[in-house]
From TrEMBL:
GO terms for molecular function: G protein-coupled receptor activity. This is G-protein coupled receptors family 1 profile domain-containing protein. The chain crosses the membrane at residues 63-88, 100-121, 141-169, 181-205, 225-247, 268-289, 301-325. Residues 78-318 form the G-protein coupled receptors family 1 profile domain. It comes from the Eukaryota. Residues 1-14 have a biased composition (Polar residues). The keyword rRNA processing does not apply. One of its GO terms (cellular component) is plasma membrane. Keywords: Cell membrane, G-protein coupled receptor, Membrane, Receptor, Transducer, Transmembrane, Transmembrane helix. InterPro entries: GPCR_Rhodpsn, GPCR_Rhodpsn_7TM. Residues 1-24 are annotated as: Disordered. It is found in: Cell membrane. It comes from Onchocerca flexuosa. It is a multi-pass membrane protein.
Amino acid sequence: MNLLSQNEQSNIPHNSYKTKSRKSQSSSIKSVIATMAMLPSISSNHSEVLITAIEMVAEPKPLLAITFACISLLALLANCTLLIYIIYNRLYRNFISSHFIAHLCITNAATLCLLIPMLIYNVWTGVNIWAHSNVMCRVQALLTCATWTVIHFMALCIAGVHLLTFARIHYEQLFGLSPNMLCVLSWLLAFGLALPTITNGHIIIYDPSFRHCIWGDSDSGLKFLTYLLILGVFIPASLASYAYIRVLGILYHSPIVFQSIGLYKSRFLVYSFLFSPFYQLPFYAISIVKDWRKPDSTVPVVMLFLAFMQCFISPGLYGASLFLMKEEDMALTARAHKAPNAHPLTQHL
């Protein structure tokens, strides 16, 4: 009896160990099953967050929407007027900058007809126009980023032509591509930069403070904003600013010479071109810092509207540049180069 009791006592720890191991295995299996059961809920919660972000409602602001609509209609009329003037007078045959200015007017008109009405509707009603379509919200962000990038590229091309005008350099020496090819390349680069807004679902959200579909505060959204700012804004704006700084240097180096030919007064236009990229700076700053924007505040919406300022002021500025910059006439230059008995001085005009 003592032997049996000793054997039974010796088996008690072993049996308890088996019992504990079985309990631990069963608990681990239960945890795995619970984790697998939570996966669909996690994905559904993520989709619910996206849907909630799209369907957020803000306070309606009809008066602000009417103000935006009036300014947009005037800007659309100005862009169409300048475009018709360039086409009617066939300036594209004589002046290279007219190619880029006409393309910029078309881009501005498309922006004013497609993107601004969506913003006006959202401001008027306080409801996202694409509340039930995540795809269209991404398309709205795609068009916004693409048009802004094209506008910066066109401003860079026009700045290069203005530098050629004052430095007396031929177009082929700086660009090497036709104006039409540069316009096509600008759209290809712009859509290439904005393509992640369609392919990556973690970038774009509807922000009720801006009343617009833009990048969110997630890691993917901030990464997209970083390379968009570098490639689509900072590089072309820096090159354009460098070109106009060179123009100012040439103007102030020989003011009497340029005053005699009527180019010295164009320096005020150059200053306006230098400050044109800074209209978007407040919008980008507010979009990065979340604490600076609130759904009930009008400041973020106004800053977003100012980000489209290039569409409003460019017809006046670039229309004036057609008269004040006195660009080299391509047709006269081509005839002078083809003339066999042309005077050497006329070949360099």
